Amino acid sequence: MSDKGIFITGTSTGVGKTHTAVVLAKSLTSHGVKVIPRKPVESGCDFENDQLIPADATALKHAASYEGLLSDVCPYRFRQCTSPRRAAFLAQQVLTTQQLADVCRTGADQGFLLVEGAGGFYSPLSEDGLNSDLARELGLPVLLVAQDVLGAINQVLLSAEAIKNNGLELRAVILNQVKGYDMPDSVSNLEELHPLLDCAVYTQPHSDNIGDNDMPADLIDLLTK
Ligand SMILES: Nc1ncnc2c1ncn2[C@@H]1O[C@H](COP(=O)(O)OP(=O)(O)O)[C@@H](O)[C@H]1O
Ligand SMILES: [Mg+2]
Hints:
Rossmann fold; 12 strands; 35% helix; binds adenosine-5'-diphosphate; binds magnesium ion
């Protein structure tokens, strides 16, 4: 598998994987990199005109100015807001890691493959696998997103260990400020994590206007090297 790409995972759901993926896709695209976005399975989709609409995949497609179909980005969509594995089960469908990997691989040689998982690294994704299994199957370096709150150090270190134990490279960690509030001055996850990890750690500011958020150039270089 090509190493021209990244697998975006998180310490949990709602920590900013899609936000980060959008910032990254926009930054790469503005630097002339062709981005191939993939969110192979998405649960919690709303119905519009009798069709399930995957919000994350739609945001990724838009951010990457991707000319392919939304169904290339995300062919497997489920209504229930639960893990993709359970959502598929409730919809009486069976999804395998292989099917999800095929979605990611198709067209991946056309550019930089940007894959967003669902939930956290060990969240169930398919009938026979977790996010970690898809990441392993793809063999891409991993970008870990965590919410920059008290408690993040533990979550990041556990996820980092899991990524390493799966034989994958943790390329960088993003401490994402999901909410607008400030943490107490005494808390600095960035400072504390720095000596505990052997990869780069960045903070990503809260921003109500996602267009304002350009990814730092050195992080872009690191993710595309
Ligand atoms: N840095 C940020 N600034 C502003 N809003 C953010 C930021 N990161 C995440 N959000 C918001 O928080 C919510 C959850 O983020 P999202 O990227 O969807 O998480 P995930 O993909 O991990 O489930 C979304 O409404 C998103 O717009
Ligand atoms: Mg998401």
